[in-house]
């Protein structure tokens, strides 16, 4: 299972929403597209799902060009793009039945899928209620059922927890973690904690370009060192603190050094280490990349 974006540029008139993007998404797990509003996240997902077409470049799903062969390419994919709305006079069962027919499923397959999905997304209790009376959380769970109809191997989700209360967000997070065990899930979010919690790969998009891809830094490990006294600015070797705040030091761990060697180096320079722990610098990277961002398309 794979989605490739090769030299993708998307322009709206004089505005460049995405600029020469090259990305590959493959295997199971969850990849998060993280960025501020207007960064280009939704534009990228719309290109993957053929809602819009690129100005330059191509998108392929499992080697099939999405623009040239959309029916074949999108047969591998389910999606939830922007905020879901449904005809208020239809029930969940009717919407899922219609979705199954569009995807070419037989009547028995559709019935089986509705039973399976209603349990997974917890919509069994309102399957036969008209969607006009649904809450935001109910609509979101139905939209996820629509995306999962036919058991696609790739699932694309655009801010799937938007507008939900904490309980609803927790339920959707649990569902995403479950489906990403054996599917490729690509989701957009502007929430740092959501990206941390759900994603094994995080890509930061800003102003239509890729600012950070955690996959390219898989071997990079940051440490937070807490000393018994303040740092004295005197370290030998190849350790260079990234940030110092009193007795707390953030540094990039040299790939050829173990933690005990780092502790010994501090000790040789008269500094005794209390704690060593892994440090997640995603927030600092995000703020650094997006600090001058405004709202775009």
Automatic annotation (TrEMBL):
CDD domains: ABC_DR_subfamily_A (cd03230)
Cited PROSITE patterns: ABC_TRANSPORTER_2
Pfam families named in the record: ABC_tran (PF00005)
Protein keywords: ATP-binding, Nucleotide-binding, Transport
Domain annotation ABC transporter: ranges: 3-232
InterPro entries assigned to the protein according to its UniProt record, in alphabetical order: AAA+_ATPase, ABC_transporter-like_ATP-bd, P-loop_NTPase
Domain of life: Archaea
GO molecular function list: ATP binding; ATP hydrolysis activity
Keyword DNA repair in record: no
Family affiliation: Belongs to the ABC transporter superfamily.
Protein's UniProt name: Multidrug ABC transporter ATP-binding protein
Organism, as annotated: Acidiplasma aeolicum
